[in-house]
Amino acid sequence: MNGLMYVPGTGCQWCTIPKDLPPRNTVNYYFCRWQHDGTLDRLHHALYILCREQAGHEASPTAAIHPVLTPARGSRAGSGMASSVRRVC
């Protein structure tokens, strides 16, 4: 788990994982596998609820603000997000 949290938490490259964590191939394998099968999403959701409850809040927020992303007016292209995300797996 420490290896899985280290890369996204620090923004480092896979090849610069510290030696006291498992080998990068092992960490990357589980990251890709758990991302694909939804395990990372389930872990995130469970930890999110636990943190909210420990802070004295309800498990689910009662109000939320969601930004709306729309292409610029007159733009022929959609948001370039999909093309700018680099796949790790």
Q: Outline of this structure?
A:
With 89 residues, this protein is mainly α. The chain has helices spanning 2-10, 24-37, 39-54, 81-84.
Which secondary structure elements does this structure contain, and how are they paired or packed?
Blueprint: H1 2-10, H2 24-37, H3 39-54, H4 81-84
What does this structure look like?
The chain has 89 residues and is an all-alpha fold. The chain has a domain at 18-59. It has helices at residues 2-10, 24-37, 39-54, 81-84. The longest helix has 16 residues, at 39-54. The two termini are 18 Å apart.
Features:
89 residues, disordered C terminus
The 3D shape can be described as extended
Q: What is the N-to-C order of secondary-structure elements (H for helix, E for strand)?
A: HHHH
Q: On the 0-100 scale, what is the average pLDDT?
A: 76
The percent range for strand residues is under 5%
Uncertain ranges: 78-87
For the largest beta-sheet, the strand count, sense and barrel status come to:
none
Tally of alpha and pi helices:
4
The total of beta strands comes to 0
